Amino acid sequence: MLLTKPHKEYAELVDILLTRKMVVEDISYAKRKLSQVGYYRLSGFWFTSRRTAIVTENGIRQSQFIDEFLPNTSFNEVYKLYLFDKKLRLLLLDIIERLEVNIRSVMAHELGRIDPLAYKNKDFIKKDSPRVRRNYDNVWLPKLQDEIKRNKAEFIIYHRENDKEIPFWVIVEIWDFGTLSKYYSFLKGNNQKKISKKFGIDHVTFGKWLHEINILRNLCAHHSRVWNKDFNAITLPNTRVETNERTSQRVFSRILILWYLIQQTDSKNYKWLEKLKDLIDTDFPDVPNAKLEFMGLGEYTTLPIELMKQNYNEST
């Protein structure tokens, strides 16, 4: 299999950008940032700032990006967009972590009161789905057992060395969001409802939200671009915020969901929302054809923080 493109040194990569009419304010700075971040990673942030041309393929005329940047496309501003996305991911990870701990606690409390070893009890798992049963028996539970054998947390070592069963409220401390989301998907509907009602949403929608939040969490943890990413369409919480069809497939939909869920148990804490608004207001750069609406914000020019607060307050 042939390589599609030859290797380029950083100076050559800067020359490519200049040839394509990007404004490079400081060549040394650009080379340094390309060495730190990588040309390919940064290209995802200038991709839509290129000119388009009408081309004909197989008799069909269509618009296509060409290798020339729009006027005033600045390397410095593109790098600021990269930093904006990085800060956005860190904020998202912060609220996802809080939500993960919260869901763990609720799940362990609600199911643990019925059976302290509910996570090992197959009576809690759907019986009408052979696929779920196989996944639980052959994948999820063995993976958890392997983690228990390897884990070096003192509380796990204590239970392991003393041959003690690990209760639900202890075992959840070594679960990640994916383990949690998958376990919820295995549960019978009545058990799911015990958890979802604490977060003010029906059990089916809650399960779908958990799955999508886990996808978002993995993207953030692995440094993938999220600010303008296309996601799966998803049901949004009831809100005073104006949304459109595009919203449900962009990161703003996940922000609305995360905010709704976290407010069910922490309704007076607006600090995270204010940090996010400040990021959008102060750090979103001036990059041609990079617009806030690509986050799913629609006509909003900033985060509609007051509407988001009103929505929660009036729904409780």
Automatic annotation (TrEMBL):
It comes from the Bacteria. It holds the Pfam family Abi_2. InterPro entries: Abi_system_AbiD/AbiF, Abi_system_AbiD/AbiF-like. This is Abortive phage infection protein. It comes from Pasteurella multocida (strain Pm70).
